[in-house]
Amino acid sequence: EFLPSMQSAEELVSQVDGLSSNIDLLKAGIENEVQRDLNVAVAEFTELKQQLERDTLVLSVLKKLQEFDTAIKEYNTALLEKKYVAAAQQLEKARSSLKTLESRKGFELKILKALGRELTVQMQNMLYHLGEEWQTLAVWKLPPSKEGSSLESAVRTELHLYTVPSKEEEMAGPPLASVLQAFAVLGELRTKLKAFGQLLLKYILKPLISYPSLQPFTEEQADVFILRFKSEEPSLDDSSPMEVFDKIKLVFEVLHKYLLNVPLEQPAEQEKERRVILAELLGDLIWEELSDCLIQNCLVNSIPTNSSKLEQYIEVIKCTEEFEKALKDMQFLKGDTTDLLKYARNVNSHFANKKCQDVIVAARSLMTSEIHNTVKITPDSCVALPRLPDPGAGDDLQTPKTPEPLRNDTVSLENGTKLSQYTFSLPTCRISSSVEQLMELAYQTLLEATASTDQCCVQLFYSVRNMFQLFYDVVPTYHKENLQKLPQLAAIHHNNCMYIAHLLLTLGHQFRYRLTNILCVGAATFVDLVPGFRRLGMECFLAQMRVQKGEILERLSSARNFSNMDDEENYHAANKAVRQVLHQLRRLGKVWQDVLPVNVYCKALGTLLNTALTEIISRIVALEDISAEDADRLYSICRTMVEEGPQIFTPLLEDNKNKKYQEEVPVYVQKWMTFKELMIILQANLQEIVDQWADGKGPLAAEFSAAEVKSLIRALFQNTEKRAAALAKIK
């Protein structure tokens, strides 16, 4: 029973051993032969895959090259047939193919550079042909460039538009559309329109704005539309905005109808907005420059110069709105409000700015004009100033000369006397006519302010204040040399400043109740400027006085101290010095005559004469020895001063009226009586001098001190008992 089982098991073992050896043989075969063949196959597969990729790439490149070549061939065919849109599209295809080829990294072909050059050449060729076509459609006839921009050259400018479609073209489609569409496809439309826009601005739009007499007119023929210009006599120097807008609108209407009303499609790359609106594109390119030109050369000039015309400006605003609406309808403008309309609507601000600028310019012109052209001002004279409407409250002033309340309401004093009607008036004098005009300008500007809007009123008020502050800075600087050298101009400038200060006292009060509420609460005043103007006038005149005083003292310094008058040469020098001083004072008296107010004139000349007398007195009193002949000659010199000194006082042109002031010399010359007492001493004996002294109570004692009288006695008289007795009485 066991043996069969064992035999079957042994057979199985032998079968397994055979199978195992077969497996080993198979394994060895696989390892030795199949693995090798497999490696070879994988290598071959990898190589084939790479070759396939390379071939696919080459195939795609060749395909693109074929596309490029086909596109260029079709472009050439289309260009010959003048199918510009198709040609442009083929050129764009070629450019796209080349761009794809160039974008492949690690794949560089020498042919690409040649293709790039070829594409550039063909692109320029296409643009040249399109440019030629464009030039035949829109023909400019321009004046020679040497002529520059003038009315004559503008009249010779013409624009011929060969875009009027014939019946055949209407069927086939107008050439204009294909040319412009081709430009759009090539991405050159904006550049071409920009160049056209610059020509349009330079030769048509700007001349129409700048020259009021230039008028556009149109002419339509069978195949051409012509835009020409003619010059007509303008009714005004500056054309009104309405006329300018109409002329510009006509030009845009012509362009819209015959040139720009063409529907265009954007290239496929710019899918955002398929349709191109030519008018809008041109508008974007030129509107900013055109609106600036319209503002600077048209609207600025149309801003009214006085507030009464402001209401009429509503027409200009309305006309500007209509002009912009027309341009929007033609699609030259987008929906937003432009700078042009904003400028027109902001007229109040521009009016105020323009008015203020004009006021300051006019004021500065007056300040830099000649000072010596004068007008006479008297308390009775009324400068041509505006009559203000009755405010119903506050002041009743109507002229700046004399405040009305003071003129009408008499002031009762205890003794029943009344103030003169001229108490608060400016004394008679001469002022520069330019200053009179300056004050008229100030009054007119403030009167303008009363009728203006609040903002404008404030601006005008402060421009008047600025005007006076400008006077303070400009006049002393601009006329500095003349004011230092010429006494008459210094006197006129003094009067000018006092005149302005006088009017500024009441100027703010006169307008206080007529200006805007902002100013009525107390800001509307000019009183704070008054001290500055008075100081300005006085400083200038006092500086001139110091110059004259210096000249007097310099002349008297050549008198050799008035000593040794018995020496002929010394006497001649002293006499000459005194004569020169009198001549100088007479000359001053002439140049200040009828210029300075009488009281200022007399004080000024009195002060200068007093300077001369004081110098002469101090020199004579200081002498230690005066002989009888010296005394006689000194007396002669002093008599010249006393006789001729009063004659320098000629404040008025009429000689008979000047005697009053010549008799009042002691009032204006402090040392006049002292000088006369000195003359008495020079001719008196000892007893007469003692009598004049009268124990310190006589006229001599009123003018000289005891020490000065004693010094004079010692110099005049020899040392005797009589002199000693006389000296003893002087104490």
From TrEMBL:
Main subcellular location: nucleus
Keywords from the UniProt entry: Acetylation, Cell cycle, Cell division, Centromere, Chromosome, Coiled coil, Cytoplasm, Cytoskeleton, Endoplasmic reticulum, ER-Golgi transport, Kinetochore, Membrane, Mitosis, Phosphoprotein, Protein transport, Transport
Membrane topology of the entry: Peripheral membrane protein
Domain Centromere/kinetochore protein zw10 middle, first and last residues per copy: 130-367
Pfam family, one: Zw10_N
GO CC annotations on file: endoplasmic reticulum membrane; nucleus; RZZ complex; spindle
Stretches assigned to the ZW10 C-terminal helical domain: 576-730
Alphabetized Gene3D superfamilies for the sequence: 1.10.357.150
GO biological processes: cell division; endoplasmic reticulum to Golgi vesicle-mediated transport; mitotic spindle assembly checkpoint signaling; protein transport
Annotated segments matching region Disordered: 389-411
Centromere/kinetochore protein zw10 C-terminal domain span: 424-554
Domain Centromere/kinetochore protein zw10 N-terminal, residue spans: 1-72
Intracellular or extracellular location(s): Chromosome, Centromere, Kinetochore; Cytoplasm, Cytoskeleton, Spindle; Endoplasmic reticulum membrane
Known partners and oligomeric status: Interacts with NBAS and KNTC1/ROD; the interactions are mutually exclusive and indicative for its association in two different vesicle tethering complexes. Component of the RZZ complex composed of KNTC1/ROD, ZW10 and ZWILCH. Component of the NRZ complex composed of NBAS, ZW10 and RINT1/TIP20L; NRZ associates with SNAREs STX18, USE1L, BNIP1/SEC20L and SEC22B (the assembly has been described as syntaxin 18 complex). Interacts directly with RINT1/TIP20L bound to BNIP1/SEC20L. Interacts with C19orf25 and ZWINT. Interacts with ZFYVE1.
Recorded family membership: Belongs to the ZW10 family.
Name of protein: Centromere/kinetochore protein zw10 homolog
